Structure formats: structure tokens, C-alpha cells
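Example record

One chain of 395 residues, shown exactly as stored in the release files.
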Amino acid sequence: MVSMEEWHRFGRTGVYRTFMFSSPTILAVTPEACKQVLMDDEGFVTGWPKATVTLIGPKSFVNMSYDDHRRIRKLTAAPINGFDALTTYLSFIDQTVVASLRRWSSPESGQVEFLTELRRMTFKIIVQIFMSGADDATMEALERSYTDLNYGMRAMAINLPGFAYYRALRARRKLVSVLQGVLDGRRAAAAKGFKRSGAMDMMDRLIEAEDERGRRLADDEIVDVLIMYLNAGHESSGHITMWATVFLQENPDIFARAKVVDETLRCVNISFVSFRQATRDIFVNGYLIPKGWKVQLWYRSVHMDDQVYPDPKMFNPSRWEGPPPKAGTFLPFGLGARLCPGNDLAKLEISVFLHHFLLGYKLKRANPKCRVRYLPHPRPVDNCLATITKVSDEH
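Predicted C-alpha cells for this chain:
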């Protein structure tokens, strides 16, 4: 992030030159600069670090061309974010939240790592959507590997023991093995004429998908898309739900305000940066970005800009009671053609959880002043160790 010293020295230019992840890089830190880059799909293509591309997969959204991204997004967006899909998922999300809260608040549970349990809960939901019928062993094998994967995603690509990237590569191999095993099972069952019970899930849709030329997705394409979606579909929701709960517990006077989710997304910045690469010489805010240079969109700087959000470090949901934010000033899910396709699903999960939690439970942290670690996502180092207590028999 740009320091205040640099800001005062160079002024509010919106772009700053640096060298990151072995590439000359421009940091875009204002709404205007971020909006221009994110909305220009011809001038800027994805430019994620080598570690991210390798770990999420070369056939995933982080490395797809614009045309491939549009094709796969069209296939997958409606079953995740469409009104009919969200209505279908609501019952399962509600049941999962209720059962999880009851388990965490039972006397036998004692203290729980609130963040860890939330990640498991949101992972169970996203696996149901993408791989309905997956057994507990499959879910546990997948969930365990994602923690190591995430720690390596924005690390330097150093493949030596002791480095985050080395551990993350091993985690990816495990994920590929598990997902390929499920995929092989689905294909074998289909070849034998067995029909799966229940509605189609995302893996079924990816297996059967054809483009206008009759081309189907290869196994490595399906696996990479699943790795990406399964990760994005539980990490952000789990972390934002934890922080929303913590903020509300610390601010009892704003329990009832409806825009808590948006304010938490602004304050916490789970996706604090994204990456692009210039396809030609192009000007942003009056400054030339040379062809081939990387551009990092620093959403955290936008969300903490006191010229956009007065007193930005204060948790204040009332700031959302006026007109909707201008384009480029609120970027928790990105912007433009590559806007996160699961944004409405994430908000639904968080809203359902907060509904049940705030009406029926309370949280007491073991270490309220616990140090926060900011990579790969903001989290207390004790994973929000806490006691969950039931305060109402109606929930």
C-alpha cells in the first residue's frame, strides 16, 4: 500500500511505479484509476503472479483469455448467482447455519476457533453447490488442503522446503487428486448408464458443457475451474462473516443496521488487490503505462481513502444509508467483466448467518486484542478463539 509519506510527496496521482513479483509494476490506488483499468478489457488482461496462476490453475479464471472467461462465466454464473439458484440454496444454507450454531454453542464444544469453524461451514455449502453428494472424507481432504494453498497464492514462487509456495504446491496436488477422483467416478457412472439422483450440480454442468463448435471441457479445465470456485466460495464468506460478527459484538448500538455486510466488506478488504497487465502503451490518470507492465489494483487503498470514506478506519454502517457508491469506489468483488460471479451467494450466506447469530447467540472472544495477520487474508492469529453462547431458545 502507498504510505502517507509517499502520498504527500507525490500527491494524489492515483498511480505509483514500483517493482513487484519480478516485474515492473504500477499500483493503482484511487477509484478513478481502478475503474479505468478494470473496465478496459482490451487495454488490460489478467496479470496475476506466477504463484497464483500455478496454484489456482492455468485453466482457471485467473489466467483465461477474455473470450474463454466469458464462455465459462456464462456457463457457471447463473447456477451460482441467479435468483432461482439462490432460492434453491437458501434452505440448505439456513439448515447448515442453524446446525453449526447449535453445535458450536453446546457445552461440550467449549472454546472454538470461530474463523476455522466458519470456513468449514461455508466450505460445506460451496461443496454442496458444486459437488452435491460428496462424502465427509472428500470434503475434509479438500478443506485441509486449502489453508496451505492460500498461504502460497501471493508468495514468491520459491519451490524449496520451508517456503509457503512449496507447501502450497503439495496442497494443489492433493486437491487435483481428490477432484480428479470424483470426476473419474462421475464419468465412469455415466458410461455405465447410471443416473445421479437429485438436481444437476456444477460438476455435472461442466462435464456436459459444449461450446458452439461442440467442444467440451477437458478434465484439467474442469479441475482448475473447480479449484478456483471452491476456494473463492468459502474463503471470503468465512472471513467476512467472522469480522461482521466481531464488529457487531463490539458495536452493540448498530446491531440492527441493514448495511453491515457492505461496511464489513469495505473495512476488511478480503480481496485487497488484483492484477492486470497492459496490452499496449496506455495512459491512466495522465501517466503512461508501458506495454507489458503489470498493474495492481489496490482495493484496500480505495476503501481506506479518507477523500472517499470520511474517517475510513471507523466501522460505520450508516455511511451506506445514502445513494449507492459511485463506480470504482466500492470494489470488494472487483468491477467490470471479471466481477466476482459469486458475489450474491456470498452476501446471502453472510446475511443468513447474521440473522440467526444476532437473534439467538453471543460471542465472547478469548483474546479481544489479539494481533491481526493480513496475509493471505486479514485474520486474528488465534483464528478468533471464542465461546459461543445461546441466548434465545427461538433460534
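Notes: The chain has 13 helices and twelve strands.
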